[in-house]
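Narrative of activities, Objective 1.

The group set out to show that a structural description can be obtained from nothing but a protein's sequence at a throughput compatible with the screening campaign. Below is one input-output pair from the validation batch, recorded exactly as produced.
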Amino acid sequence: MARAKRHDFFYGHDMANEFSAWHIDQDNALKRRVRIEAIGTTFALYERQWRSEVYYFGDLVYRGKEGASHVFGLEDGIRSRPHWKLVIDGEIPSGLAALLPATKQPLLSNIGMLIIGFLCLAIVYFAAAA
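Output recorded for this entry:
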């Protein structure tokens, strides 16, 4: 039986990239600087004397960007965990990026939303004037 390939992504250390990983748990809202250990299609998060439960990469969803950080959430099909976050600052290492859901640009930027808002305002104004 072949063993699953194991990868450790240490916060702040990757051969090519500088990055840090943070985890915010929904139970106690602590922000932990963590190390990500990937084994096959699963991963666990480690801090000095703390270890998370094991999660599947397939259960992660990309929630967007907060500043320069990429934010991933957890929805495992059984229950949504709205306050659970995995935050990655800096460039995501290529080995980890291959396992995480694809990061994408928002469909509408802030400027796009502003234009849509003004269009809606103009429609309401001219409809009321008629």
